[in-house]
From TrEMBL:
<comment type="subunit">
    <text>Interacts with SLC25A5.</text>
</comment>
<feature type="transmembrane region" description="Helical">
    <location>
        <begin position="262"/>
        <end position="282"/>
    </location>
</feature>
<keyword id="KW-0732">Signal</keyword>
<comment type="function">
    <text>May play a role as a nucleotide-sugar transporter.</text>
</comment>
<feature type="transmembrane region" description="Helical">
    <location>
        <begin position="294"/>
        <end position="313"/>
    </location>
</feature>
<feature type="signal peptide">
    <location>
        <begin position="1"/>
        <end position="18"/>
    </location>
</feature>
<dbReference type="GO" id="GO:0008284">
    <property type="term" value="P:positive regulation of cell population proliferation"/>
</dbReference>
<dbReference type="InterPro" id="IPR037185">
    <property type="entry name" value="EmrE-like"/>
</dbReference>
<dbReference type="GO" id="GO:1901029">
    <property type="term" value="P:negative regulation of mitochondrial outer membrane permeabilization involved in apoptotic signaling pathway"/>
</dbReference>
<comment type="similarity">
    <text>Belongs to the SLC35F solute transporter family.</text>
</comment>
<dbReference type="GO" id="GO:0016020">
    <property type="term" value="C:membrane"/>
</dbReference>
<feature type="transmembrane region" description="Helical">
    <location>
        <begin position="48"/>
        <end position="69"/>
    </location>
</feature>
<dbReference type="Pfam" id="PF06027">
    <property type="entry name" value="SLC35F"/>
</dbReference>
<keyword id="KW-0472">Membrane</keyword>
<feature type="transmembrane region" description="Helical">
    <location>
        <begin position="218"/>
        <end position="235"/>
    </location>
</feature>
<dbReference type="GO" id="GO:0005739">
    <property type="term" value="C:mitochondrion"/>
</dbReference>
<feature type="transmembrane region" description="Helical">
    <location>
        <begin position="145"/>
        <end position="165"/>
    </location>
</feature>
C-alpha cells in the first residue's frame, strides 16, 4: 500500500529530528569557550544542563496534548481517546529513571563518538526483554531471544571498533572511550526499567502517549533544575571538566553560551528536535505501524554515522559497519521485522498468529487490570 503525503512527512520528520537530536548534543560538546570570571577557553562539558533542555522538549509534548484535546472538543463528535484519569505521580518513577539515564548518556557522549553512542543504545532491547519477562509476565518468541543474542554480539563488535578507534584517534582517549561505552550500556539498564514501567502504566491506565511523555518531562525538568543548585557545590575533582571541578556548573554553562552563542543554537536544536521526535514517533506508530517506527529508528543510527563521517567528527572503521549490521539484524528480529517474509510460509504464519494472540492477551490483561482498578477507585 502506497504511503500518503502525510505519512511520508511524518516518516521524514521522525528520521530528521531523531538524527538532529544526537548530532546537536554532540555538536554542543565540541565547542570550547571562555567561562565566568575570565576563565580560559575550555570544552563545553555540561551534561546535566543539556539534560534539562531535553526534558523541556519532552515537557512541551504535554502542551501539544492539550492543544489536540482542545481541537478535538470543537468537533461535533470528538474522536480523540484521552485515556482514563490517573494520578500523575505514577509517572514520577519512570521520570526519575529517564533523568538518571539521560544524564549518564550525556556524560558518555562527551567520551565517545555520536555513531557509537547511538549504536550502543540498541542494548536497551536486551534489558527490556528480560525485565518484561520478569515483571510483566511476558513470553518472548524464539525470534526475540535470538534477536537479543545477536544484539549482544553486535555490542561486542561495536565495542571492539571503539577500542580500535581509541588507539588511532586523538579526539578521545582509549580509557574515556571504554568508560563512555560502559556508561551508555549501564544507562540502557535504567532505560529498560523506565520502559517496562511506562508500558505497564500506559496500558493499565490507558494513558495517551503524548501525555505520558509530557508528564515525565515535567517531573524531569523540575527535579533536575532543582538539583543543579546542590550540584554547583559538589566537588568531584578530575571527574568534571569545568574549571571549578564541581558536578555541574550551570553558571559556567551560561557564561560559555554568552561568549559563544552557537552553543545556544546547538542546545535549542536538541530541545526542539526531541519534542518533534516524540510527536513524530507517536504519529508514525498511529498512522503507519510500530514496525515502521523501528525501521526509521534504525535508519537514524545510519544517518548519524554518515553525517559524523562527512563532518570529520570521527574516522571510518570497518568493524563499526559490521557492528551496525549485526545490531540491525538483532533489532529486526526482536521487533518482528522478519514477519512479512515468514508470513508467506503456512506453518510459520500459523505460529506467528499464536504469538500475536498471546501478545494481545497480555495487553488485554493489563487493560482489564486498569479497568478493575478504576472501578475500585470509584
Amino acid at each position: 500500500m502506497a504511503w500518503t503525503k502525510y505519512q511520508l512527512f511524518l516518516a521524514g520528520l521522525m528520521l530528521t529530528t531523531g538524527s538532529l537530536n544526537t548530532l546537536s548534543a554532540k555538536w554542543a560538546d565540541m565547542f570550547s569557550a571562555k567561562g565566568c570570571h575570565d576563565d580560559p577557553d575550555h570544552a563545553f562539558s555540561h551534561p546535566f544542563v543539556q539534560a534539562v533542555g531535553m526534558f523541556l522538549g519532552e515537557f512541551s509534548c504535554l502542551a501539544v496534548f492539550y492543544i489536540l484535546v482542545c481541537q478535538d472538543r470543537r468537533r461535533p463528535e470528538p474522536r480523540m481517546n484521552r485515556g482514563q484519569s490517573f494520578n500523575p505521580l505514577l509517572f514520577f518513577a519512570p521520570a526519575m529513571c529517564d533523568m538518571t539515564a539521560t544524564s549518564i548518556m550525556y556524560i558518555a557522549l562527551n567520551m565517545t563518538s555520536a555513531s557509537s553512542f547511538q549504536m550502543l543504545r540498541g542494548a536497551v532491547i536486551i534489558f527490556t526483554g528480560l525485565l518484561s519477562v520478569a515483571f510483566l509476565g511476558r513470553r518472548l518468541a524464539p525470534s526475540q531471544w535470538l534477536g537479543i543474542c545477536i544484539t549482544i554480539l553486535g555490542l561486542v563488535v561495536v565495542g571492539l571498533a571503539d577500542i580500535a578507534s581509541g588507539h588511532s584517534d586523538d579526539s578521545h582517549k582509549l580509557s574515556d572511550v571504554i568508560t563512555g561505552d560502559l556508561l551508555i550500556i549501564m544507562a540502557q539498564i535504567i532505560v529498560s526499567v523506565q520502559m517496562v514501567l511506562e508500558e505497564k502504566f500506559v496500558y493499565k491506565h490507558d494513558v495517551h502517549p503524548l501525555r505520558a511523555v509530557g508528564t515525565e518531562g515535567l517531573f524531569g525538568f523540575v527535579v533536575l533544575s532543582l538539583l543543579l543548585i546542590p550540584m554547583y557545590f559538589i566537588h568531584v575533582g578530575n571527574f568534571s571538566d569545568n574549571p571549578r571541578q564541581v558536578l555541574e556548573d550551570a553558571l559556567d554553562a551560561f557564561c560559555q553560551i554568552g561568549h559563544k552563542p552557537l552553543i545556544l543554537l546547538a542546545l535549542l536544536g536538541n530541545t526542539v528536535s526531541i519534542a518533534f521526535f516524540n510527536f513524530a514517533g507517536i504519529s508514525v506508530t498511529k498512522e503507519i505501524s510500530a514496525t515502521t517506527r523501528m525501521v526509521l529508528d534504525s535508519l537514524r543510527t545510519l544517518v548519524i554515522w554518515v553525517v559524523s563521517l562527512a563532518l570529520g567528527w570521527e574516522r571510518f572503521h570497518g568493524l563499526q559497519v559490521l557492528g551496525f549490521l549485526v545490531l540491525l539484524i538483532g533489532t529486526a528480529l526482536y521487533n518482528g521485522l522478519h514477519r512479512p517474509l515468514l508470513a508467506r510460509i503456512p506453518w510459520c504464519a500459523a505460529r506467528m498468529n499464536l504469538e500475536e494472540d498471546s501478545s494481545d492477551a497480555e495487553r488485554e490483561r493489563l487493560l482489564n487490570d486498569g479497568r478493575v482498578q478504576a472501578c475500585e477507585d470509584t
